[in-house]
Target: Cilia- and flagella-associated protein 263
Amino acid sequence: ADIHLAEVKKECCQFDRDIGKALRDKKCVTMSAEKVIRYIEDKVKSKENLIEKLHQKNTGLLAYKKKLQIQLKQQEEMGEGLTALDFEQLKFQNMKCRKRLDEQNLKHMELKLLAGKTLHVLNSEK
Model:
């Protein structure tokens, strides 16, 4: 309510500044009437433009809100989709991968030792 009251006071001051001064001079009443009509039409047009702009902004925000709600719903569904069985399967797969990694590391060490021995034999033959 306070914002609306301040806006009305601001509009009154603008009207008085733009139109009231010309009306007080009383030089040409018909021109003043045309100015009042033009002023009011301009204000109505600016308010209509503001309404359209706010409507477009509101539409954009509603679309953004809907997009975020869909993302949130998908995230919740993803979180609910994991069960204890899924975690057990992941643990089992993790264990298999670790075992395979250990085997590969062991083979790598054996190949390094073999390469070292081969290099040693090669150097001793020279």
Summary: DSSP finds three helices and no strands in the chain. Residues 83-126 form one domain. Residues 21 and 88 are 84 Å apart (CA to CA).
